[in-house]
Write a structure and sequence with these properties.
With about 140 residues, the protein is mainly alpha-helical. It has four helices and three strands. The protein has helices spanning about 45-55, 55-75, 95-105, 125-140, and strands at about 5-10, 15-20, 25-30. The longest helix is centred in the middle third of the chain and has 20 residues, at about 55-75.
Amino acid sequence: MCGRISTVGAAGEQVDVGMVGHIWQASPVTPTVAKHRRQPVPVLLRLGRSTSRHPWRYIATWAVLILLSFAASLGVLTGESVFDRLTSGTTDAPGEAQDANDLLAASNEESATVLVSVSGADVLAPSTTTAVTQAVSDLA
């Protein structure tokens, strides 16, 4: 004769002992909820643990990334170096800046270039104009 036997456990829950005539372990009929849920592990903590467990993997990965970066900058991978793509840095914008660049290019190549910054004075005032003209004649 086979039949199911149930009993009450030590904590008061109903426990299924099993079938009569067979050796089964007792198992709870109702599932119990875990008292302590597992907290998620932060990403940086997992990364730190992985790095400490496998340091040579990370060192090798960084070395490969650095070598690939240098190879890409020197043009080994694409055929064109970063330095080949650099320009002179001159402006091509129309306006006063381009006019000044054209004047400097047309002037004597042997003369020195002087950059003057004026603050706190009206550049178009007659007194400022005479002072600048006097300074230029003193330098020449």
